[in-house]
Write a structure and sequence with these properties.
Layout: E1 7-11, H1 15-27, E2 31-36, H2 39-46, E3 53-57, H3 68-77, E4 84-88, H4 93-99, E5 106-109, H5 114-135, E6 146-151, E7 154-159, E8 163-169, E9 172-177, E10 181-185, H6 188-195, E11 204-206, E12 211-214, E13 218-222, E14 225-228, E15 231-234, H7 241-244
Parallel strand pairs: 1-2, 1-3, 3-4, 4-5
Antiparallel strand pairs: 6-7, 8-9, 8-12, 9-10, 11-12, 13-14, 14-15
Helix pairs in contact: 2-3
């Protein structure tokens, strides 16, 4: 399978240098999607061109105000976070420090060798892809709507959407459903957070330190007592009526 070409946006006001760079990039199998020879052309292209790396000359013939730095600022305003490589004929430390405000992938003083430019583009793309992977949220594993527990010689299956109550006792949580009852080692909070599927958590309400009930079995709440189909429970947590009516 052929590898997808890397798209390059080039902004260089010296037409001869721009053509040389463009030919070099094409020779390395890059795709020059725009070859701009002025600030105005670069300004039009920076937010409208689908590029992977932008190569920007810092001085586009009108000083630094209408050059690569300003184009980099425009890219930021357009929420473009693709790698930027600065080119310049200046080798002054002050300009290097000023360019660092844009976190460029590379900074090269012209003339730059072909292999140096090639390496800069390749490394900038690899670093960009790694950074994207680091900031992407991890895909959360789906919690199953069931739990298997071994009781003696039997394996019992609990369906979380049928659970009536979770009650903590010593180092275990008793989980009682319509058809089975199992023990799971752990705290009440950890069992609820780790085992109950996210879409079912709103079906339950915590009454006190030791009990979490399925809202469906609550008959009424009166004078600090919760009356349910399983009996009466002491209420120490604050329960809002709106919370009881919420089942996402």
């Amino acid at each position: 399978m052929s590898q997808q070409k890397i798209n390059i946006l080039l902004v260089e006001d010296d037409i001869l240098i721009a053509e040389q760079i463009s030919e070099t990039l094409t020779g390395y199998n890059f795709n020059v999607v725009a070859n701009c020879n002025s600030f105005e052309e670069g300004k039009d292209a920076i937010c409208s061109t689908d590029f992977d790396v932008a190569i920007l000359d810092i001085n586009l013939g009108k000083g630094f105000e209408r050059g690569g730095f300003e184009l980099a600022m425009i890219a930021q305003k357009c929420a473009i976070q693709k790698p930027i490589i600065f080119l310049t004929g200046y080798n002054k430390k002050e300009i290097v420090l000023e360019s660092s405000a844009f976190a460029p992938a590379a900074y090269y003083v012209k003339p730059v060798s072909e292999i140096t430019l090639y390496a800069g583009i390749q490394f900038s793309i690899e670093n960009y892809r790694k950074n994207i992977q680091m900031v992407e949220p991890a895909v959360k594993e789906t919690v199953p709507n069931y739990y298997f527990s071994k009781i003696g010689n039997k394996v019992v299956k609990i369906l979380w959407n049928e659970v009536l109550i979770l009650k903590h006792t010593k180092n275990y949580v008793i989980v009682k459903s319509e058809h089975a009852e199992v023990l799971i080692r752990g705290s009440l909070t950890s069992i609820f957070n780790e085992f109950i599927p996210e879409e079912l958590k709103s079906h339950f309400v915590k009454l006190n330190r030791t009990s979490i009930l399925n809202k469906g079995i609550i008959l009424k709440i009166e004078n600090g007592t919760v009356f349910t189909t399983l009996g009466e429970f002491e209420l120490t947590s604050s329960i809002n009526v709106d919370d009881l009516n919420t089942q996402k």
